[in-house]
Design brief:
The protein is mainly beta and about 375 residues long. The chain has three helices and 31 strands.
Length: about 375
């Protein structure tokens, strides 16, 4: 599904999810924004804008009295030698997506951006000094740059369809996906690269074969001259790895099946993320939410449930071997010491629950306050990961 421009769509949630019996509803947005999750209450009318294939939801019912911020985790503490820093985008007291700097246990939270517009998809530079993010206004989505104190914010691009920024290891160049007006970004995106010091930018890929396909959601290896990205080169959206110019592209994580035989929809892959040592790639895999009843217009609660059950995070090595399923969820990231995360809706919390693998199992990262929308998060690299 694709809707061009800014437009508002109203839909009763009970019409979308008639099988839900609890008083909390969850919508997982399309993966062009990284699978953002928000909680809704029964009986309210949801009002959302679809921009560049992205459902951006704004709910007046969410702007009630501010919930207290979660502090320290109450169960197992992650097995780390020290607490790592995180930059997260979540709603403030006015439900504006805002960047916050905090510790991985939810402590020491402080605000970075103070904007009337949503700030989302943060990515921290390898030197730990800068953040590139997407700023969404009525004109579209632009890339912005700031420091960790939020005192030196400036635009890097004009507003348009600029999404999913990521850094090169030099902390000077940024890559991102860009789609032209009137185009479906899931089928017609290209990758761009920009020097934050000079402002010069260009198309990233020059390989004549690869530029013939849609390329999206770039993430550059921290240790090699390689980039992981999403492309429809093989038909469905899949995780590919190539040289920075797009040459020597290879499919690295073929799914067990191309199409779901019961749901009758393709298995897609999105949001790749490199491990800090450049050995592993985590990504989302499942049936896209555009096949849910709310988008098809054909109520089918059983099929909706099956679709949501396909959402999982997978990990594979850069050579396409040792593929394994991490667990249900979306939006994988890697901590600086090499543990993978995944996010999924939590009805009790009224928002996303973020889990991280540890040396002894899994535990939760309490970085999103209850009943808040969010726009992804990034880790501040440790000193020993930026050498």
């Amino acid at each position: 599904m694709y809707v061009e421009g800014w437009g508002w769509v109203d839909a009763k949630l009970e019409d979308c999810f008639p099988h839900t019996t609890t008083t909390t509803f969850y919508i997982v947005y399309p993966h062009e924004v990284g699978g953002t999750i928000m909680a809704f209450q029964e009986g309210f009318t949801m009002r959302f804008s679809i921009v560049a294939g992205v459902a951006l939801v704004f709910l007046p019912c969410m702007a009630h009295a501010r919930e207290p911020m979660e502090g320290h985790i109450t169960n197992e503490t992650p097995v780390h030698s020290s607490l790592h820093d995180i930059i997260v985008s979540h709603g403030d007291e006015n439900n504006v997506l805002t960047l916050f700097h905090l510790k991985e246990d939810g402590s020491s939270r402080r605000r970075i951006t103070n904007d009337e517009y949503n700030c989302l998809m943060p990515s921290c530079s390898p030197d730990g000094e800068k953040i590139v993010y997407v700023r969404q206004s009525e004109n579209g989505m632009a890339l912005w740059l700031t420091d960790l104190d939020g005192k030196k914010s400036r635009a890097l691009t004009t507003a348009g369809k600029n999404l999913v920024p990521s850094w090169l290891p030099d902390s000077t160049h940024v890559v991102w996906m860009k789609s032209q007006p009137g185009k479906d970004p899931t089928q017609d995106s290209q990758l761009h690269i920009l020097n934050i010091e000079t402002g010069n930018s260009r198309r990233l890929f020059t390989d004549p074969t690869q530029i013939g396909f849609s390329n999206a959601m770039p993430t550059v290896s921290p240790t090699r001259n390689e980039i992981a990205f999403v492309s429809n080169r093989s038909g469905h959206m899949r995780i590919w790895v190539s040289q920075l110019d797009g040459s020597d592209a290879r499919l690295v994580s073929p799914p067990d099946m191309e199409d779901h035989t019961v749901i009758k929809a393709p298995i897609e892959q999105k949001v790749p993320a490199w491990s800090p040592d450049g050995t592993w790639i985590a990504h989302w895999e499942g049936v896209e939410m555009i096949h849910l009843s709310q988008f098809t217009g054909i109520p089918n609660p059983k099929r909706d449930h099956m679709i949501l059950e396909t959402f999982h995070v997978w990990v594979v090595d850069r050579n396409g071997k040792n593929r394994r399923k991490v667990g249900r969820g979306d939006d994988p990231t890697w901590s600086p010491d090499g543990f993978v995360t995944r996010a999924f809706p939590d009805q009790k919390k009224g928002g996303p629950r973020i889990m991280i693998e540890t040396a002894t199992g899994e535990t939760e990262l309490p970085i999103i306050p209850p009943k808040r929308n969010w726009g992804r998060f990034t880790w501040k690299p440790s000193a020993n990961t930026t050498d």
